[in-house]
Amino acid sequence: MSKNVIVIGGGLAGLVAANFAVKAGAKVTLFEKSRSIGGRAATTEKHGIQFNLGPHALYRSGQAYRILHELGVEVSGGIPKVGGTVGVRNGRKHLLPSGALTLLTTGLFNLSAKLEAAQVLGSLLKIDAEKFNHLSVREWLDKEIRTEDLRLFLQAFFRLGTYANDPERQSAGLALAQFQMALNESVFYVDGGWQVLVDGLRAKAELAGVKIVAEARVEKVERSQSGKVIGVRLADGSRQASDAVIIAASPNEADQLIEGEPTLLNEWAKKAIPVKAACLDIALERLPEPQTTFALGIDRPLYLSVHSAAAKLAPEGQAMIHVAMYLGSEAPADAKAVERELEALLDLVLPGWRWLNFRWH
Description:
CATH architecture of the largest domain: 3-Layer(bba) Sandwich
Strand content: 15-25%
Radius of gyration: 23 Å
Largest sheet: 6 strands, mixed
CATH topology of the largest domain: FAD/NAD(P)-binding domain
CATH class of the largest domain: Alpha Beta
Oligomer: single chain
Distance between the termini: 56 Å
């Protein structure tokens, strides 16, 4: 007899869980509290331009890419070009190194740092990243990298690869593993935005028999006196029995859903550290600097990428740009100041963008 499985959460994680559960022979119902499915992977269209919720990219050698292929969800898109990239330091643009020649000519490094970079960067692809799981990013940089210029450069790429700006606590092993994935096979921007992934996973799930219920908030995961999961209680007061429940939500949200005595999840929720970023999504009638499609902050945790230069996210000639600041675990005290810094990055990298910004009617 097949088991009844309930999935809570209709983002990518919930949709993937539902697909694998139904493939394993379970009878699956997915509940999503919002009206639409997709969560942070949702894409909004305005005047033919596709807006993701901040910058999204698939690592071509990452687990998500493999899972989509395994589930038969086909996606198209493009790999960001190496050319047209700049590093920003002390409010100035510099060539971002992408090889031996650009490493020699960039103004980001002094000579000592260039010599060290030439020795270190190639070797980072070959090291066993897991050996450094016990070190923080800061500890690893201080121990392994001699020059401050190269420390700043590597830290910028660690932020880029992990969406996190917390070198005192972040695992060096994880940061190095992401760095290796990015250099080995780069990333992939998805044509049509990440809604394409949501729609593909939903279609596969429903075709396999998953029942997806939107605008249905689960209030509690109910357990028997012995602690066994017996089902869920919804906000409308109704109950649905199940043999197992999969919660595709943050540790905090998941912990609050569990009825009865605290579980191990409660300890995980207490220890979990959120990853936060401030994002500004911009659509332009055209690019003022067509040759510049990517910028990375070296001494500030900033990011800019013209995603439409690699993927189909805007009509021909128009541009979809993501600008972001990688934050620590705390939200900034002055959100307007962050917004001004993001706009200042646009001013520096793509001067004239304000005159080409769409005015929505």
